[in-house]
Amino acid sequence: MCTKGLVWHPPPKREAGGGGASASSSSSRSRSRLSAGYRRAEDDFCAKWSLDRPARLLLRDLPPDLREQAMMKFNPYTEVKHADYSKVFAAWTRRAWAAFTA
Fold first, then answer.
1. Which of 33, 43, 92, 101 is most buried (CB neighbours < 10 A)?
2. Where is this region: Disordered (predicted)?
3. Would you write out the chain's pLDDT as a tens digit for each of its 102 residues?
4. Among 53, 71, 75, which Cα is nearest to 62's?
5. If you ran DSSP here, which 8-state letter would residue 14 be given?
C-alpha cells in the first residue's frame, strides 16, 4: 500500500452539546477572522521551516491554542534534514494533538 502524499488530519473536535459546526468549518471561520499580523506570523513560521502545502494546511486546521503552541514550540533537532521538516512537523502535531485532547 502506497502512503505517499497522504497527510494526517486531526479528527474534528467534539462539542459538548453534541451538534454544531464541525471543527474544520469553525477553523476556517476563525482563520478568516485572524488579524493580518497573525496571518503574517503564520506565514513566516511556515517559511522558516519550509513547510509544504499539506503541513501548512495541517497548521491552519489546528485549534487556535494548539496552533499558537505549535508555532512557539516546534523546533526540530539539528540532525533533521531540511527536506524532512514537514514530516517532522506532522509527527510533532500528532503528539501535541494527542496531549491536547487527552
1. 92
2. 1-39
3. 444 454 555 555 555 554 444 444 444 444 555 677 778 889 999 999 999 999 999 999 999 999 999 999 999 999 999 999 999 999 999 999 999 888
4. 71
5. P
What sign does the CA torsion over 82, 4, 96, 53 have?
positive
**Amino acid identity for residue 70 in this structure:** A
State the DSSP string of 24-36: HHHHHHHHHTS-H
What lies within 8 Å, CB to CB, of 20 at 6+ separation is: none
Give counts: helices (H), strands (E), the chain: 5, 0
Provide the pLDDT for residue 62.
Answer: 92
- Kindly list the distances between the CA atom of residue 36 and the CA atoms of 40, 41, 44, 88, 95, in Å, as whole numbers in the listed order: 6, 9, 12, 27, 29
**Hey, where are the domains in the chain?**
50-102
Compute the half-sphere exposure of residue 68: CA atoms within 13 Å on the CB side of its CA.
5
